[in-house]
Amino acid sequence: MKALILAAGVGKRLGKDGQNQPKCLLKFNGKSLLERHLDYLRSCQIESVAIVVGYQAEKIQDEITALKAENWVTTIYNPDYTKGSIISLGTLKKHLTAGDDILLMDADVLYDRRILERLVKTNIPNCFLLDRDFELGEEPVKLCVKDNYLVEFRKKLAANLTYDFAGESVGFFRFESAIASRLATITEDYITNKRHEEPLEEAIRDLLLENPQKFSYEDITGLPWIEIDFPEDIQRAQKEILPRL
């Protein structure tokens, strides 16, 4: 199994903390988010890691070198990193279509290693991670479940959508090789049709809704994690998440 990490974007919403460096280099207790990712992935015996870089890419490469991970981690440069994460996903076409099972991961998440272990060890070949303990609002990407099937994956839900319960997506996914290849095709269609500025989740949503029966989820409710998008997320990460790791 291989891991693909999206780390190309500019953290505009973080203000100066996102402009000084890529978000994956934010440090908590002296360790960058990227170092934590690589530590966890190595402990899960992931075969290799590919990271899409863009904004201040050289700083990410320097971190990889400092961590002595060059023989295990490769970077793919996305020169159009300001044009949306779908472009970044498109740069991974070779990896998505290589015939490997993959983990697809956002880089800007601080999390308990058991979350990743759950995704690696699951017997669900195409797996989302779902946290029922979240606050409703426009920001969380929601996973909706009805009759134990995933029926929606989006920030904004249709008013007439019926479901049994919802949770927040962690932003980590596991896909078997055929599904990963299909995601590459969907992503290419988005780019060709000039839909590249739409949220990355829309392409994954299309993948899910084509064949909902091929997907399921692991419920990681109770395990600590946070996606870091805003300055207040950094404060919460330090005060609420780190003490629980």
Protein architecture, described:
By secondary structure, the chain is an alpha/beta fold. Helix content is 33%, strand content 26%. The chain contains nine helices and 13 strands. The chain has helices spanning 16-19, 33-43, 57-66, 85-90, 93-96, 113-121, 177-192, 200-210, 231-241, and strands at 2-7, 27-28, 31-32, 48-53, 73-77, 102-106, 109-111, 127-131, 142-146, 149-154, 165-175, 216-219, 225-227. Strands 1, 4, 5, 6, 8, 9, 10, 11 and 12 form a nine-stranded mixed sheet that branches. Strands 2-3 form a two-stranded antiparallel sheet. A two-stranded antiparallel ribbon has the order 7-13. Strand 4, helix 3 (57-66) and strand 5 (73-77) form a beta-alpha-beta unit. Helix 7 (177-192) packs across helix 8 (200-210). The protein is globular. The protein starts with a strand and ends with a helix.
Topology, element by element:
Layout: E1 2-7, H1 16-19, E2 27-28, E3 31-32, H2 33-43, E4 48-53, H3 57-66, E5 73-77, H4 85-90, H5 93-96, E6 102-106, E7 109-111, H6 113-121, E8 127-131, E9 142-146, E10 149-154, E11 165-175, H7 177-192, H8 200-210, E12 216-219, E13 225-227, H9 231-241
Parallel strand pairs: 1-4, 1-6, 4-5, 8-12
Antiparallel strand pairs: 2-3, 6-11, 7-13, 8-11, 9-10, 9-11
